[in-house]
Amino acid sequence: MPRLHVQTFGCQMNTHDSERIFDVLEPHGYGAEPEAALADVMVVNTCSVREKAEHKLFSMLGRLRDWKEARPGRQIAVAGCVASHQGSAIIRRAPWVDVVFGPDRIHELPVLLAEIEQGAPPRIAVAFDYDAPTFLSPVVDAAPTKASGPTAFVTVMKGCDERCTFCIVPYTRGSERYRPAADIVSECKHWVRRGAREITLLGQTVNSWHEPVTLTSQDNDCTSLDIASQMRSVPRMQGSSKAPSHFAQLLRLIAEEVPDLLRLRYTSPHPRHITEALLDAYHDLDLLPDHVHLPVQSGSNRMLRRMLRRYTRAQYLESIASLRLARPNMTFSTDLIVGFPGETDADFAETLSLVEEVEFTSVYAFKYSPRPHTPALNFEDLAVAEDVKEARLAKLFEVADRVQARHLAGLVGSEVDVLIESRGKSNEGLWQGRSQRNEIVHLSAPSSSEPSASALNAAVLAEGALVRARVESAGARSVKAKPLVLLASPPAPVRLSEAGEGQAATQPAAAHANAPEGKRRLPLTTAIAGGLP
Ligand code: SF4
């Protein structure tokens, strides 16, 4: 059995693609190999959002040359955004690479590797699938051969129609293509049947999702028909907060069709697609958590205009205020770029003041780096000096860390609802999870002296359980809390089978205290960059 190791760089979308890479190869007999040194096939799933990540790829490929030569028959494949925009240039620079394939060609990987095995020259497959978009997902009707963890990701769209002047994504992932609602709902059900309690919908501008126009009433799935008939009369909204939103309807549909789902997150929304309909959804849908990751990129109108973000600082703040009106406890995280061409000290000060004003609880910030194909290359005569960028980034982190620490300290003594995601690391608590507001929470053992905790013992705490806990202390990035009440038991263990329809097993919840047998673990993956831009 060939052993597969996937090395992932970049955002959640890439991490998700790495899962799909594993999915398409597994039926062909490939097994996961956590140790790169022991693998037969190495897939490097790349990120090109920042220049640094691209440099890391080529230094890694340099090291992989020796890895490949150490054992005959080993294969190297390069995936992701760098593969997409560099294509054959990767082979020219690193001729020991066997396959270069883009995000839309993942399903072809087994054939491409087989061709290499039979002696074919390096294979390059990077074209976009505009004619017939594919959304790789698990075989949703299959018997469960693997359980899910408590959290799962579901792709709803790919590509991006925005043209932010700094961003390479539209050139590496192509124009927007949307997945039918029926498929999305079906995959959500699939993961919930396998133990997921929280799903994150993924898309480059996830809230611009709309039902693909190819959906017709001939579709025999009633879910599709319902949403299609509702949506056919709804014009695609663009840039108006008053416009209707297919995305909000999708959230409602998932809430209705997947009742066992506890939390529904999404990333990354574009600020200009925060609609009235989405705000209404926050009023109505309890499964939407009190947190939104809303990339802003800069606090300066001058920079926002130059970046072609299509909103002003005031409009961004208006969206924040509207979301807080719908959910007073709402927290926000964001992405920021410092040192964009022409950024002055005054522009940067606007970014700092925005961090304070919104009170972002988490900030993913990067120095601007010029990317191929992007319009911002034309601004190079306005480039900000590297040492200025460094100093601004350091200052930004200083302010963001202070704001985050202040927020976390303010939680001490309050109660938070925590979805348990994993066992805690040593000294941090028994379990680790996230609150409604996306704070990282380390849970200690329940207190036997706490009356409300009488029904709560360590045995019923497990991955996928939802507990209310009291925050006892705050650190720089997380809080520690003591469990008080079990709000939702962990899902019943999934009975895994090779064939036949899988069913939830009937063992009591306490038996689920450890990760379910067969729980899927990808070969070692390393995310080195922040969220989607
Ligand atoms: S920053 Fe986001 S919205 Fe802008 S072009 Fe890139 S992916 Fe699209």
CATH T-level fold name of the domain at 137-289: Transcription Regulator spoIIAA
State the end-to-end CA separation.
Answer: 38 Å
CATH class of the domain at 137-289: Alpha Beta
Q: How many DSSP-defined strands?
A: 19
| Approximate shape | globular
Can you characterise this structure?
The chain is α/β, with parallel strands linked by helices. It contains 14 helices and 19 strands. A six-stranded parallel sheet has the order 2-1-3-4-5-6, with helices on both faces. The chain has a five-stranded mixed beta barrel with strand order 15-16-17-19-18. The model is unreliable at 215-225, 231-242 and 498-533 (pLDDT under 50). The protein binds iron/sulfur cluster (SF4).
How is the topology of this model organized?
Elements: E1 3-8, H1 12-25, E2 31-32, E3 41-46, H2 51-69, E4 75-79, H3 80-86, H4 88-93, E5 99-101, H5 109-117, E6 123-125, E7 151-155, E8 157-158, H6 169-173, E9 177-178, H7 181-193, E10 198-202, H8 222-232, H9 246-257, E11 263-267, H10 276-284, E12 291-293, H11 301-306, H12 313-326, E13 331-338, H13 345-358, E14 362-367, H14 386-409, E15 415-423, E16 431-435, E17 440-443, E18 466-474, E19 478-488
Parallel strand pairs: 1-2, 1-3, 3-4, 4-5, 5-6, 7-10, 10-11, 12-13, 13-14, 17-19
Antiparallel strand pairs: 8-9, 15-16, 15-18, 16-17, 18-19
This protein binds iron/sulfur cluster.
Iron/sulfur cluster binds next to helix 6.
